[in-house]
Structure formats: structure tokens, C-alpha cells
């Protein structure tokens, strides 16, 4: 039985391009973001991947990425489940602010803690620890059972919601996950064993 789980961060969004904290705000993909999603889908197609179900967040940039990838695979009508449980981390009061402006206002060290620490919350927002607490139960309840039944699952989501999931899948420490950067539009292919643990992982970046 193939227990296939593919994770992909959405393509570049307009706010990524403008260097803004995005969080639960809902900007669209840029032209580059569309191209990144197309390329990710084509790379999956070139390796023969097909899916039985897709999951995405409640945010437009992830949903658009998911549709583009499925279109490249010729699977436009694939059942797709959208849920806010795998939304990007909520950046609270920082959402919409330029990251360089935030560093000038609060200092490099403070902004780094808000962005990359495991358990420090930005004002009015979520830490990565909070994001793990939101994403992991949804994964266990909704996504993992399908993978374990042999369904081939695509998840198109966000940098921090996927970092939260990868922390668990890859057995990363809080220090290791703080250094994890996920490129936009790049699929990560996991295969799971009978015990739900990862038996292989591949990055589809060429």
C-alpha cells in the first residue's frame, strides 16, 4: 500500500513580494506565484504523481495554488477540502506591516523572536507552538487517516502551518524548526509506514 502525503507551500503572494507580514490576511498570488505553482504541478506530473484528495486552507493564495497544481496534473475536479485549521500562522497586530519597518521600530532581535522562535507570540497573534496546537489535531483527525487508508493526499498550505506539520513528521526540535525555511511552490513528498512514521522524504525542486 502506498501511503503518500505531498506538502506544498503556496506560490509567492502579493504581500510576500512586498515583504509584508501576511498571516490570516488574504492577498492573491503574484504572476511569479502562479508560475511557481504551475512548475510545482508540472514537476509532480513528470514523476507520475496523481492524488485521491487535496487539502488546503481557507485562504485564497493556498486554494489558488492547489487549483493550479491539480490543473497541471489534469485533476481539476479532484475532491478538495478547505479548512482554516491549516491556515497560515496568525501574525496578529503585525499583519500588513513591512518587515523592515517592524525591525526599525522594535529591533532586529525582537522581530526575529516573533518570526522564528517556537513559543513567543507576536502582539495579538500566534506563536509557532500555537500553530502546531491547531494544525496537528486536524492532521491526526482528517488527513492522516486518509493517508493510512492508502489515499494519495496533496496538502497546499502555508510556510508556518507546514513548518508545524513538518516538525512532527520529521521529528524536529524546537531549535531545528526555528531554522526551517520552506520555499514557495516546492512539493515535499512523504511516504509513511504502517506505524504512521515517515519512511522516505523527497524534495521536488527540479
From TrEMBL:
Instruction: List, in alphabetical order, the Gene Ontology terms for molecular function in this entry.
Output: phosphoglycerate mutase activity
Q: Which SMART domains match?
A: PGAM
Q: Does Isomerase count among this protein's keywords?
A: yes
Q: Which GO terms describe its biological process?
A: gluconeogenesis; glycolytic process
In chain numbering, the residues marked as site (Transition state stabilizer) are 158
**PANTHER family reported for this sequence:** PHOSPHOGLYCERATE MUTASE
Protein family: Belongs to the phosphoglycerate mutase family. BPG-dependent PGAM subfamily.
Subunit comment for this entry? Answer: Homodimer.
What is this protein's record name? 2,3-bisphosphoglycerate-dependent phosphoglycerate mutase
Gene of this entry: gpmA
Amino acid at each position: 500500500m502506498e501511503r503518500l502525503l505531498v506538502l506544498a507551500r503556496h506560490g509567492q503572494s502579493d504581500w510576500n513580494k512586498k515583504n509584508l507580514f501576511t498571516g490570516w490576511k488574504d492577498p492573491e498570488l503574484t504572476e511569479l506565484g502562479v508560475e511557481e505553482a504551475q512548475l510545482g504541478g508540472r514537476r509532480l506530473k513528470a514523476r507520475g504523481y496523481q492524488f485521491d484528495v487535496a487539502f488546503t486552507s481557507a485562504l485564497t493564495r493556498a486554494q489558488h495554488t492547489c487549483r493550479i497544481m491539480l490543473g497541471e496534473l489534469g485533476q481539476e475536479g479532484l475532491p478538495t477540502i478547505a479548512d482554516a485549521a491549516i491556515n497560515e500562522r496568525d501574525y496578529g497586530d503585525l499583519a500588513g506591516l513591512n518587515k523592515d519597518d517592524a525591525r526599525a521600530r522594535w529591533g532586529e532581535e525582537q522581530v526575529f523572536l516573533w518570526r522564528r522562535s517556537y513559543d513567543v507570540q507576536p502582539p495579538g497573534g500566534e506563536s509557532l507552538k500555537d500553530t502546531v496546537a491547531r494544525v496537528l489535531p486536524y492532521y491526526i483527525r482528517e488527513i492522516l487517516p486518509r493517508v493510512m487508508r492508502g489515499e494519495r493526499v496533496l496538502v497546499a498550505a502555508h510556510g508556518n502551518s507546514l513548518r508545524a506539520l513538518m516538525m512532527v513528521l520529521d521529528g524536529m526540535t524546537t531549535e531545528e524548526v526555528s531554522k526551517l525555511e520552506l520555499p514557495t511552490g516546492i512539493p515535499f513528498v512523504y511516504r509513511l509506514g504502517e506505524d504512521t512514521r515517515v519512511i522516505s522524504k523527497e524534495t521536488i525542486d527540479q
